[in-house]
C-alpha cells in the first residue's frame, strides 16, 4: 500500500515538473516575441513570428502530452490527456483562423481586384503567346523540313523515288541503297577526285582541326591586343576590321587564288589552312570578352606582381571560357563547310580533297554505276545517292552542334568574361 502511494506521489511530482518545464519553454518564446513586437515596426516580420509562436505552442503541447503519457500508468488519466490535447489543438486552430481572418480577407480583396483589372491584359497576353508560338512553329518547320526530307530520302529505295508514284512523307521501305550506291560511285573512280570516302573525312578532320587551332590562337592574341593596348588608331582598326564583314567571301577568292599561286601553294594543304587563319567575327568576340573582365582585375594582377603574359595566361584566358568554346565551334564549322575555295585551289587528282568536294563531285552522279542502282528513268538523278552523301557530310557537325548549341548561344549573347 505504501509503495503504491509512493509511486502515485512520484508520478504526480514528475507530471508537475513536466508541466512546469514546457510552460517555461513557451513563456520564453512568448517573451522573445513580445520584445520583437516592441522593438520592430516590420508588420510582415511580426506576423511571421506570431505564426511561428502559435506553431511552437502546438508542438510544445504535443511534446508535453507524449512525456506525460509515458510516465502515466492510469488508463483514465491517459484518456483524459488525449481528449484535452485534441480539444486544445482545435481551440488553437480556431484562434489562429480568427487572428489571420482580417489579413486573409484583405489579401483576397486585393487578389480579386487585381484579377479583374488584369483580365483584359491577360487575354491579350494569352493571344500574343499563342500567335508567337504559331509563328515560331512555322519558322521551325521551314528550317527543319529540308533536313527531315534529306535524311529520309537518303534511306528510300529507288522504287520509292519513282516520279510516277505518289510521294509520301515517310519511306515505304527503309533501305541503305543510297549509301551503297554512294560508296560504289566513289570507288569506281567515276568521281573526279581520286579519294576514298574515309579519306575525304580524314582530310576534312585534319584541315579543320589545324585551321581552327591556328585561327583560335590568332583571334585570342588579336582580341587581347585590341582590348588591352590603348592607341589612337584603335577606333580606325576596329572600323577596318568590322567593315570587312560586309565584303562577301566570294569576292576575295580570286585575289587569294592569285596570291597562293605566286607562293607556289596550289594543290597544297597549306593553301586550305592559311586563308582561315583570321576571322574578324571571332576576333571581335574575343576583344569584347577581354574588355569586360574589368580594369580592376588587371590592376590587382599588377599589384600582385604578375607580368602581362601571366595575367593573360592565368587570369584573362580562363575567364573567357564560354567565348573560347564558341569561337572554336564557329571556326570548326566554317572550315568544315568550305567548298568554293578547295575546288579552286586543288587539282582534280589531289589527295587532299575534302567532304564538301565529295558533294561537289556527286552533283553530276548518275544511277548506272557499279551495277543497278535504280530504275532507268532515275539513272540521270539518283536522289538517294546524293542525299546520302549530304547526310554523311553534315553528320559530324550536327552531332557537335546538338551537344554544344547552348555553349554557342551563351558565348554569342554574353560575349564577356566570367568573373570568378
UniProtKB/TrEMBL annotation:
Membrane-related topology note: Multi-pass membrane protein
Tagged with keyword Transmembrane helix: yes
Gene: ugpE
Location in or out of the cell: Cell membrane
UniProt record, GO biological process: transmembrane transport
Family note: Belongs to the binding-protein-dependent transport system permease family.
Domain annotation ABC transmembrane type-1: ranges: 201-404
Full protein name: sn-glycerol-3-phosphate ABC transporter permease
Source organism of this protein record: Spiroplasma taiwanense CT-1
Gene Ontology cellular component annotations, sorted alphabetically: plasma membrane
Amino acid at each position: 500500500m505504501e509503495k503504491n502511494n509512493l509511486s502515485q506521489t512520484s508520478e504526480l511530482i514528475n507530471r508537475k515538473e513536466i508541466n512546469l518545464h514546457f510552460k517555461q519553454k513557451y513563456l520564453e518564446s512568448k517573451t522573445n516575441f513580445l520584445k520583437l513586437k516592441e522593438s520592430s515596426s516590420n508588420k510582415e516580420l511580426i506576423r511571421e513570428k506570431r505564426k511561428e509562436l502559435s506553431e511552437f505552442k502546438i508542438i510544445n503541447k504535443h511534446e508535453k502530452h507524449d512525456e506525460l503519457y509515458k510516465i502515466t500508468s492510469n488508463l483514465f488519466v491517459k484518456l483524459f490527456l488525449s481528449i484535452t490535447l485534441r480539444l486544445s489543438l482545435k481551440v488553437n486552430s480556431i484562434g489562429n483562423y480568427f487572428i489571420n481572418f482580417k489579413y486573409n480577407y484583405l489579401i483576397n480583396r486585393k487578389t480579386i481586384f487585381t484579377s479583374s483589372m488584369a483580365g483584359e491584359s491577360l487575354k491579350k497576353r494569352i493571344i500574343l503567346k499563342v500567335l508567337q508560338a504559331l509563328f515560331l512553329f512555322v519558322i521551325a518547320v521551314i528550317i527543319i523540313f529540308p533536313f527531315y526530307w534529306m535524311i529520309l530520302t537518303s534511306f528510300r529505295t529507288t522504287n520509292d523515288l519513282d516520279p510516277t508514284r505518289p510521294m509520301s512523307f515517310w519511306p515505304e521501305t527503309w533501305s541503305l541503297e543510297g549509301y551503297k550506291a554512294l560508296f560504289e560511285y566513289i570507288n569506281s573512280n567515276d568521281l573526279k577526285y581520286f579519294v576514298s570516302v574515309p579519306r575525304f573525312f580524314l582530310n576534312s578532320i585534319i584541315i579543320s582541326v589545324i585551321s581552327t587551332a591556328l585561327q583560335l590562337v590568332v583571334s585570342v592574341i588579336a582580341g587581347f591586343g585590341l582590348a588591352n593596348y590603348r592607341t589612337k588608331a584603335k577606333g580606325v582598326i576596329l572600323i577596318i576590321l568590322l567593315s570587312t564583314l560586309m565584303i562577301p567571301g566570294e569576292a576575295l577568292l580570286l585575289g587569294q587564288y592569285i596570291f597562293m599561286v605566286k607562293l607556289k601553294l596550289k594543290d597544297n594543304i597549306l593553301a586550305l589552312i592559311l586563308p582561315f587563319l583570321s576571322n574578324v567575327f571571332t576576333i571581335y568576340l574575343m576583344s569584347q570578352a577581354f574588355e569586360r573582365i574589368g580594369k580592376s582585375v588587371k590592376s590587382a594582377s599588377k599589384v600582385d606582381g604578375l607580368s602581362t603574359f601571366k595575367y593573360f595566361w592565368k587570369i584573362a584566358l580562363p575567364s573567357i571560357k564560354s567565348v573560347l568554346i564558341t569561337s572554336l565551334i564557329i571556326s570548326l564549322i566554317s572550315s568544315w563547310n568550305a567548298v568554293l575555295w578547295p575546288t579552286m585551289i586543288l587539282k582534280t587528282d589531289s589527295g587532299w580533297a575534302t567532304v564538301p568536294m565529295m558533294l561537289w563531285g556527286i552533283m553530276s552522279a548518275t544511277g548506272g554505276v557499279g551495277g543497278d542502282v535504280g530504275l532507268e528513268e532515275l539513272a540521270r538523278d539518283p536522289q538517294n545517292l546524293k542525299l546520302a552523301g549530304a547526310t554523311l557530310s553534315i553528320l559530324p557537325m550536327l552531332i557537335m552542334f546538338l551537344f554544344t548549341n547552348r555553349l554557342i548561344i551563351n558565348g554569342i549573347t554574353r560575349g564577356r568574361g566570367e568573373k570568378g
